[in-house]
Write a structure and sequence with these properties.
Layout lengths: L1 H4 L10 E8 L2 E6 L2 E6 L3 E6 L2 E9 L9 E10 L3 E6 L3 E7 L2 H8 L9 H13 L1 H6 L1 H21 L7 E5 L3 E7 L2 H4 L5 E4 L14 E5 H5 L7 E7 L11 E2 L4 E5 L11 E6 L10 E9 L4 E3 L3 E5 L4 E6 L4 E8 L4 H31 L7 H21 L1 H4 L5 H33 L10 H22 L7 E7 L6 E7 L2 H41 L6 H37 L6 H39 L12
């Protein structure tokens, strides 16, 4: 409480008022549009217009005190991410808004060789002050982990332990146990020696893991670097980049010198998992380590043995942060290989046929006169982009810099949304063609449709990518093969909740829209059929009109069945993709891969038939010397 108490010891100045009140040992400070409360129980709480902030001050040696309440004046410099309050010559205070740039600028100076326990407490204070930002911003989490790891190493280095000595640090949100491994301990006949993990609270004692370190590997470490740090965390939200379900305590093992890796004898840990962890047939408990280079939980080099529902034995050949995660069952290795071959072959074939559709469209005569063909080819182009980017997802995950993978993931998402949108446009065009008045004209019809078909997905993806400072939706995501330690990295959407909230809702709305259009078209066709039957009863004087109705009825049926076939094909395929997400269902996965390979081929056949039909119509028009007909669309 000392920093804020010193605010009471300042004389009056000249600008914005800073008012304070002391009551029962708590300090309340009021600034323009902000309040700061320091409580002995709750700590410091800063709010700006109801939003969290951080308030930090530095002081001179001059002091002033006058009662338990009052107001001071300060010169205020207002910047984008912070406000600076200067109360000369006594104090400088800064109010930081909980935004990524501001908080990163506070954390990064703490990642230094001089940082110690005081800086660690300040690090926790920053995290506790901006809880929502820490739960959403990946960059802030990375900065926090880097600074925390550096401070842990600084504390280990300055502990100056005797051979075989140990010291424990309780740093509020974590507990650190620093141990200097002695030669006597390494002369043990056992292949491993047990070392105690620190205990944060007495009630958490049952969750502290047991740890055994390999003797032979420790023998190879120079004596001066044989200092081990073990960290137990009260909170582990900084390690949750993809909303992982961490079911045990997070344990960090650090060596003062070079990191422990490629151990011949693995480190053994026994984690205790809460009995409240919800298990089902589609999930399992898995030993994982946190990769602080890729910021992901991985299983490489770790083996899992479940002795029972609560004790999980982990054997790992390196030292990093460890935990037991509750993860969904993954695809078995043999199925993964088959599905991978099917996916690559299918997407390659689909991309080939959609490319042929585009070439056919470019070189066919008078194609610009038929809006239907243009819409078909636009859908084909969206599908072509989707297949090509899918083929690049694994490659993009291995390329530096990181923005390459982000771009591949975002472009694939854009292509997917374009496919959905052009499906809806197909139905809308059919509605205008059959339900509205025939043979009328829309001004700039294809331009308007293109703005919708390519523009709406572009806006959605641009906004999602622009929220990177708030939450990174695109990037590397990992898939683990069942019963193995192998992971497969791809470029795609990293946040499952975002995947379902946006893609599934978008797909569902378009599928409902298409279904409604097809029902309306089916109703119209039934009415046209009745009109056609009635026309037959008028005899020869109605022959011309009847022939016209028959032609219109025939065209309507063909167009309706075409769009119905496309909607069923693509709707069923992507519906299976969403149904297969979240758990492993092999029939659905195989159906999706097989149907996916047919999309480009069927659209190619569709475009070929449309072009052939258009050429036949042009030929008939030339022979009859009548004006060229175009697809009917309603005028503005």
């Amino acid at each position: 409480m000392v920093p804020l108490l010193l605010l009471l010891l300042l004389p009056e100045s000249l600008a914005d008022p800073i008012c304070f009140n002391i009551s029962n040992g708590d300090i309340n400070i009021t600034l323009s549009n902000a309040t700061i409360v320091e409580s002995r129980v709750m700590g410091v709480n800063c709010k700006v217009d109801g939003q969290p902030c951080i308030f930090l001050c530095t002081f001179s040696n001059q002091t002033w005190f006058n009662g338990s309440s009052g107001c001071l004046d300060a010169k205020v410099t207002r910047l984008e991410v912070k406000n600076i309050y200067n109360i000369e010559p006594y104090s400088n205070c800064t109010k930081y808004f909980c935004k990524q740039n501001a908080i990163s600028s506070l954390i990064k100076p703490l990642d230094s060789l001089t940082a110690d326990q005081r800086e660690m407490m300040q690090l926790f204070f920053i995290r506790d002050s901006c809880v929502e930002l820490f739960s959403t911003s990946h960059q802030v989490k990375k900065d926090f982990i880097n600074a925390e790891r550096q401070i842990i190493h600084n504390i280990m280095r300055r502990s100056r332990l005797e051979n075989g000595g140990s010291i424990k640090y309780n740093l509020r949100m974590l507990s650190l146990n620093v141990v200097n491994i002695s030669d006597a301990e390494l002369n043990s006949t056992e292949p491993k020696i047990q070392i105690d993990a620190p205990q944060l609270l007495p009630e958490n004692a049952s969750f502290v893991p047991d740890i055994w370190l390999p003797v032979n590997d420790l023998h190879n470490i120079p004596k001066k670097d044989r200092i081990i740090g073990l960290v137990s965390y009260m909170q582990h939200n900084q390690f949750q980049f993809k909303q992982e379900n961490i079911s045990s305590m997070v344990l960090r093992i650090e060596l003062l010198g070079e990191p422990l890796k490629n151990l011949k004898t693995p480190i053994q840990m026994i984690f205790r998992v809460s009995t409240n962890v919800h298990m089902d047939n589609h999930s399992r408990l898995q030993c994982c380590y946190f990769d602080e280079g890729e910021w992901l939980w991985k299983t490489n080099g770790c083996e899992t043995n479940n002795t029972n529902q609560t004790d999980i034995i982990c054997n790992c050949n390196h030292a990093t942060p460890f935990a037991v995660l509750l993860i969904r069952n993954s695809i078995a290795e043999e199925h993964w290989k088959i599905l991978s071959y099917l996916s690559y072959i299918g997407c390659s074939l689909s991309a080939f046929f959609t490319a042929l559709s585009l070439v056919l469209y470019v070189f066919s005569r008078n194609h610009r006169l038929d809006y239907s063909i243009s819409i078909h080819v636009s859908l084909s182009g969206a599908l072509f982009m989707l297949n090509i980017t899918f083929l690049l997802t694994e490659w993009g995950a291995t390329v530096e810099p990181d923005w390459v993978c982000v771009f591949v993931a975002a472009f694939m998402h854009y292509s997917l949304l374009c496919c959905f949108t052009w499906m809806a446009i197909e139905s809308l065009h059919l509605y205008l063609l059959l339900i509205k008045v025939f043979n009328t004209y829309y001004k700039h019809y294809m331009v308007k449709l293109s703005l919708v078909g390519w523009g709406i997905p572009g806006v959605i993806v641009t906004v999602s990518a622009g929220l990177q400072d708030f939450r990174q939706f695109y990037g590397v995501t990992q898939t683990t093969m069942a019963n193995t330690n192998q992971t497969n990295a791809i470029c795609w959407i990293k946040d499952d909740s975002f995947f379902y909230a946006l893609n599934l809702v978008y797909f569902t709305l378009i599928f409902i829209f298409n279904s409604g259009i097809l029902m309306a078209v089916a109703s119209s066709i039934c009415k046209m059929k009745q009109v056609f039957k009635n026309g037959l009863n008028h005899g020869r004087e109605a022959e011309g009109k009847t022939h016209s109705d028959l032609q219109r009825f025939s065209d309507s049926c063909r167009s309706s069945f075409t769009v119905l076939g496309l909607t069923c094909l693509m709707g069923t395929t992507w519906g299976l993709a969403f149904l297969g997400s979240g758990y492993v269902n092999y029939p659905i996965l195989y159906l999706f891969c097989i149907l996916n390979s047919t999309q480009g081929f069927f659209i190619f056949l569709w475009v070929c038939l449309s072009v052939k039909k258009q050429k036949k119509r042009d030929m008939e028009d030339r022979w009859s010397s009548t004006p060229v007909k175009i697809s009917g669309v309603k005028s503005d």
